[in-house]
Amino acid sequence: MSNFIILPEAEDDVAQAYTWYESQELGLGEEFLRCVDACIQFILRNPKMYPIAHQNYRRAMIRRFPYVLFYEHSGSMITVYAVFHCSQDPQKWRNRLF
Q1: Amino acid 48: pLDDT
Q2: Assigned CATH for 3-97
């Protein structure tokens, strides 16, 4: 089993998305959290499952929601750097990763 870290910036991304989805429909934020957790569980089981987006950073699509999770797998460590809406400016996630 790999060690797992989600950076505070990525936690903030998830919290903001949760708040927005909950404001749209009660329970939708909870469904978003379940889908993020499912994505993380897939990553933990098979960290190389998702494609490399740039250098060592991988991009995992979150089921049912237009979000991607950016992470790095190095040895036995998995680090989540960002959770971004697909319509956001790509420069935003690039600035966080590089």
Answers
A1: 93
A2: 3.30.2310.20
